[in-house]
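ok, trying the design again with the full structure, not the truncated one.
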């Protein structure tokens, strides 16, 4: 990444509010990953070529824009960051509960976070600013529809599905190259909650998701996910989904250990390579800089006492369109009803390109 002005912008954002700006509230656990089969035809990485391996793994679940005091059930993107401790080094996979991200340009992340995060004083978000951001950035609309569906709220970290946030490149021993996307499917079953249930838990038990994960693991009930890989040729003419392995989590990590964890898109073992995806590059820089600030902040405290392939990415799930359940229309109307007409019109026009029927219903109701 050679754009010095972008690096300066991301660094300035990382310094503003230590210890974390992105994914500030979360919980971490450890376990292991068990590959199903040998995939040497696609990659030389041992993590996918040794079906007898039992790879130690650390996972952190979090709210993308949630600050430390945020309710776990707030409308947000949930993140599942996985670190495999392989014999060839660490391997990080960053995933989100939507199959698309809000922006392609990492330079827009500071502005995005400003609109997503609640105000420090009131603890409530400025939804007008969020929708005005979406109106000005049409690429954010697919993620906005997922955000305002029931997939935007959840009571548990272990029951959403999680999709990869960026593509990776694989190379086998013969030098052939493939592209890889991924998805984590929970064996616990998939579930969401409505906006009304989310509001109830926000007042009754703001830490519901973290508490739920901790109680399940302390009850000696392992949590499991299956890793699905989408392998495709660079030209995109051939692709296939492969059930690659199973992740099993057995215990929660303490808070101090969680605070030291760092997950980066470009932390990769032999046989797996970064692509030129701009979001992966930007997140690698931003998260590393934020971690450096966090460590520095902790030291001061002890002394004195985040490609076009991500714009929509609907094909990642085999053609899954943006969600259109009835609650999505209801949730959208609740926010859009109080916006100015110009912003409403821009939002409806963006949605029309994704779902004509949904846009027409919104237009009639607004």
């Amino acid at each position: 990444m050679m754009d010095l002005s972008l690096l300066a912008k991301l660094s300035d954002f990382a310094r503003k509010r230590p210890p974390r700006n992105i994914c500030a509230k979360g919980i971490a656990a450890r376990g292991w990953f068990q590959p199903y089969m040998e995939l040497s035809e696609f990659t030389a990485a041992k993590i996918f070529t040794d079906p007898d391996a039992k790879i130690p793994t650390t996972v952190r679940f979090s709210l993308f824009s949630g600050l430390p005091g945020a309710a776990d059930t707030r409308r947000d993107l949930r993140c599942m960051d996985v670190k495999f401790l392989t014999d060839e080094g660490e391997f990080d996979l960053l995933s989100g509960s939507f199959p698309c991200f809000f922006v392609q340009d990492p330079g827009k992340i500071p502005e995005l976070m400003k609109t997503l995060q609640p105000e420090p004083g009131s603890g409530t978000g400025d939804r007008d600013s969020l929708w005005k951001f979406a109106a000005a950035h049409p690429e954010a609309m697919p993620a906005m529809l997922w955000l305002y569906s029931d997939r935007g709220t959840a009571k548990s970290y272990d029951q959403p599905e999680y999709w990869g946030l960026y593509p990776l490149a694989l190379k086998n021993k013969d030098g052939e190259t493939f592209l890889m996307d991924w998805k984590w499917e929970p064996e616990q079953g998939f579930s969401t909650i409505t906006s009304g249930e989310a509001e109830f838990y926000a007042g009754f038990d703001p830490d519901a998701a973290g508490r739920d994960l901790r109680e399940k693991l302390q009850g000696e009930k392992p949590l499991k996910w299956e890793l699905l890989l989408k392998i495709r040729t660079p030209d995109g003419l051939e692709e296939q989904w492969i059930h690659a392995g199973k992740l099993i989590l057995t215990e929660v990590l303490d808070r101090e250990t969680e605070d030291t964890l760092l997950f980066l898109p470009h932390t990769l073992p032999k046989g797996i390579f970064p692509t030129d995806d701009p979001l992966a590059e930007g997140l690698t820089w931003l998260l590393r800089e934020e971690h450096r600030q966090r460590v520095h902040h902790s030291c001061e405290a002890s002394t004195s006492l985040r490609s076009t392939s991500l714009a929509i990415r609907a094909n990642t799930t085999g053609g899954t369109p943006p969600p259109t359940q009835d609650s999505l229309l209801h949730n959208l109307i609740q926010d859009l009803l109080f916006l100015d007409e110009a912003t409403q019109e821009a939002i409806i026009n963006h949605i029309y390109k994704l779902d004509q029927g949904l846009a027409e219903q919104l237009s009639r109701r607004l």
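Keeping the full-length input from now on. Residues 211 and 311 are 33 Å apart (CA to CA).
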